[in-house]
Amino acid sequence: MLTAEDKKLIQQTWGKLGGAEEEIGAEALWRMFHSYPPTKTYFPHFDMSQGSDQIRGHGKKVVVALGNAIKNLDNLSQALSELSNLHAYNLRVDPPGFSLQFLSQCLQVVLATRLGKEYSPEVHSAVDKFMSAVASVLAEKYR
Amino acid sequence: MVHWSAEEKQLIASIWSKVNVEQCGAEALARLLIVYPWTQRFFDNFGNLSSPTAIIGNPKVRAHGKKVLTSFGEAIKNLDNLKGTYSKLSELHCEKLHVDPENFRLLGDILVIVLAAHFTKDFTPACQATWQKLVGLVAHALAHKYH
């Protein structure tokens, strides 16, 4: 459960990213494809070269969606409702408990490389909980 | 038999040579106990684990973190025989400590994040991929003797 303190830390952390959404999203995806090659199976139609338009575009999409969720931490279910439908019925990405954890890990690594010491244990914990909550909501409609 | 490319070995060695084992180990273990509080169940006799500050300052956490990462260093010297290296520890974690192997994966991922925060942009995607492979294999080796 996200505490008030968690929510504050998440919003503060996101605020530090200063408009670098596209880069951060693209880098998180790139790292995910490299560390967890099976995740590429969901993107057979993508140009997988570094910095490709598709990876940048999709990375930005993902991070913008997360940013929107962060503005609605008190009602994640509603904020992510459309995406929940999409992931469950159209994309059918392996149940979020499994594949989305790889994205969570890679996004956190990107944040850690950018924030260094500022990615403190407390921030780490809040972000991890948040990504877990997002995965949970996205999984709601799977079956 | 796991295969390590020359590049992977180099990425592991170059990061490891700059790691302060005591500090990094302490931090990784502290984060495990903070981010995944249920893991505290294995450390009942560690004293005060009541808050992130308490955990980070706890001398037993620091000492144990150092022990864990020192053992990791042994794995790095024996990349071609991780299962052999961890055989006894695997038995210990199963038979005496009763640790669910899922926790090894959690600690491995946390270690990667600690390295990322420490090395920042030097912790490149290639670096991360190699280290995720390493922590995955270490977790696997530690789970190998479970029965």
UniProtKB/TrEMBL annotation, chain A:
Single GO BP term: hydrogen peroxide catabolic process
Gene Ontology cellular component list: blood microparticle; haptoglobin-hemoglobin complex; hemoglobin complex
A GO molecular function held by the record: haptoglobin binding
Record's signal peptide: none
Residues of the Globin domain: 1-143
Gene3D superfamilies in alphabetical order: Globins
Annotated InterPro entries: Globin, Globin-like_sf, Globin/Proto, Hemoglobin_a-typ, Hemoglobin_oxygen_transport, Hemoglobin_pi
UniProt keyword list: Heme, Iron, Metal-binding, Oxygen transport, Transport
The UniProt record lists the keyword Mitochondrion: no
Top-rank taxon: Eukaryota
Function in brief: Involved in oxygen transport from the lung to the various peripheral tissues.
Subunit structure, as described in the record: Heterotetramer of two alpha-D chains and two beta chains.
Family: Belongs to the globin family.
Protein name from the UniProt record: HBAD protein
Gene (UniProt): Hbad
UniProtKB/TrEMBL annotation, chain B:
Top-rank lineage group of the source organism: Eukaryota
Name of the gene: Hbrh
Organism: Polioptila caerulea (Blue-grey gnatcatcher)
GO biological processes: hydrogen peroxide catabolic process
GO molecular function: haptoglobin binding; heme binding; metal ion binding; organic acid binding; oxygen binding; oxygen carrier activity; peroxidase activity
UniProt-listed Gene3D superfamilies: Globins
Domain named Globin: residues: 3-147
Signal sequence range: none
GO CC terms: blood microparticle; haptoglobin-hemoglobin complex; hemoglobin complex
Function, in words: Involved in oxygen transport from the lung to the various peripheral tissues.
Protein name: Hemoglobin subunit beta
Keyword Transport: yes
Database matches in Pfam families: Globin
Subunit record text: Heterotetramer of two alpha chains and two beta chains.
Family: Belongs to the globin family.
Alphabetic keyword roster: Heme, Iron, Metal-binding, Oxygen transport, Transport
InterPro entries, alphabetized: Globin (IPR000971), Globin-like_sf (IPR009050), Globin/Proto (IPR012292), Hemoglobin_b (IPR002337), Hemoglobin_oxygen_transport (IPR050056)
